[in-house]
Amino acid sequence: MNQNDTTNSNDNTDPSAQPPAAWIGWDWGDQKHSLALQTPGGKIEMTTLDHSAENLHRWLKELEQRFGARPVRLGIETSRGAVMAALLHYPWLEIHPINPVTSARYRSAFSPSGAKDDLPDARVCLELVRDHAAKLRRLQPQDPQTLKLAGLVEARRNLVDRRTTLLNQLTSLLKSYYPQALELLENLNTPMAVAFLRRWPDVISLKAARSATLKHFFYQHNVRSEGVVKKRLALIAAAVALTTEEARVSVAVLQLNALVDQLEVFQKHVACLDAQIKRAFAVHPDACLFRDLPGAGAQLAPRLCVAFGAERAVWSEPARLQKYAGLAPVREKSGNQLWTHWRWNAPRFLRQSFVEWAGQTVRYSQWARVYYQRMVKKGKKHAVILRALAFKWIRILWKCWQERRAYDEARYLKQLIHRKSPNAVTSQ
Q1: pLDDT in tens, 98-126
Q2: Which terminus of the chain is more solvent-facing, meaning fewer CB atoms within 10 Å of its CB: N or C?
Q3: Which of 6, 2, 65, 56 is nearest to 26 (CA)?
Q4: H/E element, 273
Q5: CB atoms within 10 A of CB 287
Q6: Which tens digit of pLDDT belongs to each residue from 124-174?
Q7: Any idea what the Cα angle at residue 328 is, between residues 327 and 332, rounded to 5°?
Q8: Do 100 and 76 touch, CB atoms closer than 8 A?
Q9: What pLDDT digit, counting tens, does each position of 353-404 carry?
Q10: How many whole angstroms separate alpha carbon 245 and alpha carbon 157?
């Protein structure tokens, strides 16, 4: 979850800072990078750089010698990946990530024909960072603990999304030839489901198993309720194969084995990431601010910690984070018309983190539940309510984060009553 890949920012330029020795526009590519460089009063120098670690560091060291490690302001259309990590090793570089939408609209303003290639793209980045740096957010690298935790929580989310896709494929396959397994297992994302499908990949092999064997299997996997076990054994006894055509079943079993193997790998590595996240979060300096938030839990608390980070200067006011996360609504006006919509191009993972947590707080926070119920009575949609609730929570958490003080539900409820807020809890 990177907090810096946006261009929507207020003026954050330090007026006392040393003026840059040069400006650089960088159009990043997998094979080649296109670059446009200009010094004060000089002509624009256009060049390309083959992508390799050696070429990149050699070019950066040449720049350092050329400008004597004086500040060089660089505009680039990305804030992720190995190239950005390499650039952060050079403190004299002032890096300004540029939203691709910003550069595309800037380009179209002067090229209505839609003409586009890499070198002009680099020039667009140069002009933006040279002439509009005050409106671009300078990349502020996070501390190593936050960076590691951010990488871990995003990696976990990526694996979980891929596992969900796999589970959907597995469900679809079982429906096509072995629907009884779905009823017997209920949840496919368990070690028991993996072991069951490996041992009995079709109805024929399942019905050939003895009742004692099946009962022992369920007991081994902590299914020890006599009623549940008897119900499953009765279902197996009454099961009829959807199809017994060997040509179809044999191919389906091969597909099943491939999917089950992959599912076991996902289960193993998600558990490994969970353990790593737990350790990294435990040693984070701000973990105490997020660990006990209502409804946060083991997964959402680290994600909220990463969303804020440890550098207080990054979010100098709550509105900046609310806008960046895509939770602050946008108002557009044209003539006598005024309409409101949500923000486009917001970091999806960040917005998901806040909205998912807001949904949990409805269950665990009294004032959040009151707010949700009020909005439901007004006819608001579920997703709209959660975004608005997340917007409110950011303001609360930002204050706690700035003051390094954990959120206190009882104290906040008293404040709501004192202010006569409609979200106040008047009865317990």
Answers
A1: 888 888 888 877 766 666 555 578 899 99
A2: C
A3: 56
A4: helix 246-282
A5: 17
A6: 999 999 999 888 888 887 889 999 999 999 999 999 999 999 999 999 999
A7: 130
A8: no
A9: 999 999 999 999 999 999 999 999 999 999 999 999 999 999 999 999 999 9
A10: 40
